Amino acid sequence: MKPPFCHFAGLVLLVSAPSLAAQNQPAPDAATAQILEEIASLQAALDGGAASNNERALSTIMTALASAKATYDLYMDSRKQLEFEEQGKRESDWREWRDANEERLRSQEHIEALRFQLRYLALTIAAAEAQRVEGAEREARRTKLVSEVVRFLDDLTAGAEDLAEHSRLLSGSVLGSPISKRLKLDLTLGQVAGWNMSPWNVADTYERTLLPYYRDVGQVAGLSACWDRRIAHEHKLASLPDGGGIRFRRGMSERDREREERREEDRTQAVAEEEFRTDRLPELKWGKLRDTLLFGGERIATLRAMTALVRENLAHERASDWLKEVADLAKKPSYDGKAYLSTVEAGEKSAKFDELLDDLVDRD
Q1: Helices (DSSP H) in the chain: which residue ranges?
Q2: Which bin fits 18, alpha (ψ -120 to 50), beta or left (φ > 0)?
Q3: CB 119 within 8 A of CB 112
Q4: How many CB atoms are located within 10 Å of the residue 16 CB?
Q5: Which of 137, 128, 134 is nearest to 194 (CA)?
Q6: How many other β-carbons are positioned within 10 Å of the β-carbon of residue 270?
C-alpha cells in the first residue's frame, strides 16, 4: 500500500563494477535486502512522526471548533506566527496589522468561513488516516467519512449565501491555510488519494469521494440519491447572487442603492439559473443515467431515458458525444462499470490535452 503521509521522489542506486577491495562485501541479494530493510525502518519512523503530528493537529482543530472565539484566536495566532514572528517583524507591526484588519476578520461571516475550513481540514485528516488501515476497518472508516462529508456539504450549501463573500477562503486547498501551515499539515498530509482539497469545489468532492463510494457499495438507490444531492448542491452554489461590478450613480439615496443591489442580484441570479439549467444540469443528469445503467439499473428503461435526454438537449455542446455513447452502450449486453468509466476518464483527459496543445499552437 502506498504510504499516505510520505512520498519518495525516488531512490537511485549506482552500482560500480566489482573490485578486489569489494570481494568481502555481502552478495548483491543480501546487500539489497539490507537496503530495503533500512528503507522500511525509515518509512516506519516517518509515518509514525507524521501520524503523531496529525493527531495533535486534529486535537487542536477540534478545540478551535468549540467556539467562534476559539476559531478566531487560532487563526490570528497562526497569522501572527507565520507572517510576523517567523519573518522577524516587530510586535508593533503585528498590532498595527491586527488593528487595521480586526473588524473584517472578526465578522460573523469570516469566522463561519474559517469554521467550515477547519471542519474540512479535520475531514481531510480522517481521509488520510483511513488509508493507513486495511480490510474491514478501512471500509468502516470510509463509510463514516462519507456520512460526515455529506453532512458537511449539506451545511456548506445551506449557508452558502452568507459564505459567498469569503468563498476565496474556501476555494483553495485547505493545506494552504495559515492554520494548516502552523500545524505542519502541509508537510505531513500531502495530497490524499481520492480526496478533493478544496471545500468549495463540491463537484470534485462528489467525483473523488462520494460517487466512487456508492459505486463500490453497489446499491443503485444509494447511487441515484447521491446524484440527486449533487445536483441540488451544485445548483445552490451556481445560483448564488453576485453583486460584483455594480456601479452606483452619484447622489443616489441609500434606499435607491439597496433597490439597485436587489435588481442586480436578481439579474445575475437569473443568468446563473439559466446557465445551470441549459448547460450544467443536462451534464449532471447524463452522469446520473450513465451510472444507473452501469451499476445495476434497469437496462432498457435507462437507455430510453438517455435517448430522451439527448432529444431534449440537441442544442447542448455534448449532444453529439452523448448520442454516440448511448449508441455504443445499447450494443453491449452487460457492463463493467468501473472499467467503462476509467476508459471515459482517459478519453476526457486525452481530449483536454489535445485542446491544450491546440491552444499552444494558436498562441504561437
Answers
A1: 28-64, 68-80, 91-105, 108-130, 135-158, 160-163, 167-171, 178-182, 185-188, 202-205, 211-217, 220-238, 254-275, 281-294, 299-312, 319-330, 337-363
A2: beta
A3: no
A4: 6
A5: 128
A6: 12
DSSP character at residue 176: G
Long-range contacts of the stretch 104-110 (C-beta < 8 A, 24+): 105/72, 105/75, 105/76, 106/72, 108/68, 109/162, 109/163, 109/165, 109/166, 110/166, 110/169
Assigned C-alpha cell, 211: 460517487
Question: Could you tell me the residue ranges of all domains in the chain?
Answer: 40-200
pLDDT per residue as tens digits for the range 108-145: 999 999 999 999 999 999 999 898 889 999 999 999 99
Instruction: For 299-353, write each residue's pLDDT tens digit.
Output: 999 999 999 999 999 999 999 999 999 999 999 999 999 999 998 888 776 665 5
Residue type, 294: L
Q: Give the torsion sign (CA, 102, 119, 180, 184).
A: positive
Cell numbers at residue 280, please?
450544467
Burial classification of residue 209, based on how many CB atoms lie within 10 Å of its CB (0-12 exposed, 13-18 middle, 19 or more buried): buried
Give the dihedral of Cα atoms 180, 148, 162, 73; nearest 10 deg.
-40
Give the chain's length: 364
Radius of gyration of the chain (CA): 26
Instruction: HSE, CB side, 13 Å, CA atoms: give it for residue 48.
Output: 6
C-alpha count within 13 angstroms, C-beta hemisphere, residue 96: 6
